[in-house]
## 1
Amino acid sequence: MYTKDGEKYFIVDAHVALWDARPENQRNIHGKQFIDCFYDYHRNLSPESEVWTYEEYLYQGGERLMKDLFTDGYVDHAIFQPAYLGEFYHSGFGQSEEASALAEAHPDKLTYNHNFDPRNGEQGLEQLHADAERFGLKGVKLYTAEWHGESRGWKLDDPWARRYFEACRELGITNIHVHKGPTIRPLDRDAFDVADIDHVASDFTDLNFIVEHCGLPRLEDFCWIATQEPNVHAGLAVAMPFIHTRPKYFGQILGELLYWVGEDRIQFSSDYAIWTPRWLVERFVDFQIPDELTEYAPVTTAQKKKILGLNAAKMYGIDVPAELRLPDADEPATGPRGADELSAV
């Protein structure tokens, strides 16, 4: 929990990872390219005081993760969103065994989501059933630009992907997190395009589609889809650190999301270990839309509380102390919202 000026904020970090990118786990040059790209994001968008050494960055381990999130980072609950990347790393990039064991040991603090790849066909479907039973899955993280043999990506509306979503329905896996937005070397930009969210969100209205990185740099595409699909949500991973390097740009991102998507469908994420949550939480609570961005309404304390934790807590059924809860906004399910607030400024 974070407290500032008498206000208390329940913090859910909705997108964290425990990865191993050390040289001994790199299968080929692409494993090094991938973690080097992550490190460039980390080094260039973090305050100088928050920059890790490259060696620290390759593997953080469970003990450090617990300290960075819960001892130092104000986080009340965090959700693992592991990327597999088996073509680049011997045991995968996100460490499923270590992360799931950590979540099992700290169920009050951690939720473990897993992943699937529809290109694995029937065998993958069987594995999804086994994983759902083993981990008690409520969500998955999908990486549509992941390489798989000769394939360099897949789409959410592919026939096999639809079979996996039907299985998610049966298994109670209702939260589908999808990396849509920033490309990462050597993955292909177009395989992260946000357009295929529209099709599956319309067909699977009983599943939540959380678009991680809110489609950046295709924010406009994302907003025009999300405003018409009440089951599409915005994840702020990667968007958050711009609060430091480019606050006006961050203000534009947040202003657009609040206008098109609304305060009840935006989730805070540090994207740990690309960044750590402490400074992001502090900066976000202090943040306000820059005066020159007159087309956006000011961000309220209630909106910040929802974004920092209450929205994700509601989606995952995480217990929140009664005194910290807030009612949903009285907003339309579809279409732009926020015009009334702006006219009142």
## 2
Amino acid sequence: MTIHLRSSAVRALIALIFVLALGALFNAEGAFFKWDTHRDMLRHISVFGILACGLTLVIITAGIDLSVGSLLGFTAVLFALLSLRLELSAWLAVPACLAAGALCGCVSGGLIAKFRIQPFIATLAMMVFARGMAKSISGGQKITTAILRPDGTYHYADVPGVFAFLNSKILGQNIAVVTLIFLLCILVCWIILSRLRWGRYIYAVGGNEEAARLSGVPVAATKILAYGLSGFFCAVAGLCQAAQELQGDPETGISYELTAIAIVVIGGTNLMGGRGGIGLTFIGAMTIGYLEKILSINAVGEAGRLMLTGAIIVGAVLFQKYRK
């Protein structure tokens, strides 16, 4: 039994089963057993899960990215600005937002890899900078379909098709498109980590950076790639967030990094780097998603949910240290 508990996947599954058992016990008069509850949980956790995909790559390199929430907010505002106000085609707006997110991530990675700035400091600076960019390009206001005319009245623009698509449900309204995007991001990360040379580089850099350097691994390029991909996934999440809210809010995404980090840590990816996987992050997303949903259907307030999430992060980190 002890040997099995040494497996991160087993421990993550035990945590998920425990949370599901709580849901079955405190089922809010049967609400937990309805498919709508599970569908809505998947839709809610998908944006956080997409952020956690990028964070998983960064944390395996022994880094951290505190800017994911702000980059989500920046790209959501940029997407709304390009689509709702400038009325650009989705074929131009989507790639532009994805490139902007990836570029911001590469800047963080470059500061860390080339200038030896601590990941905490570099991404903290990017967190503040990206929030500032979101407020700057939006003028501090939400970008919605309501457009102010010179005479003081409002004109309501049509919702772009890409917004409607990202906010839709398929298969008889049973699966949200954003959930499928989350699963696609999981698949992309799995391919990177399991099938590509750069995935092995990411593990090598996180396991022992100096040994990786002496073995010929391009350490700086690997770190820039990991943070660039994190920024890319932030942009994907930003597009989904803007479509779900039908607006670009410069304040959106605040504290999202807390939930995304919790998903990665609870899944079992080691904060010290070198160990972990995207499958564990998926289990962590399900655990956090179900935990929040169970608290929600049982009318536990937001304050209680936030405090519980913080306590779970501390518990997961202490458990990792105990295992050593």
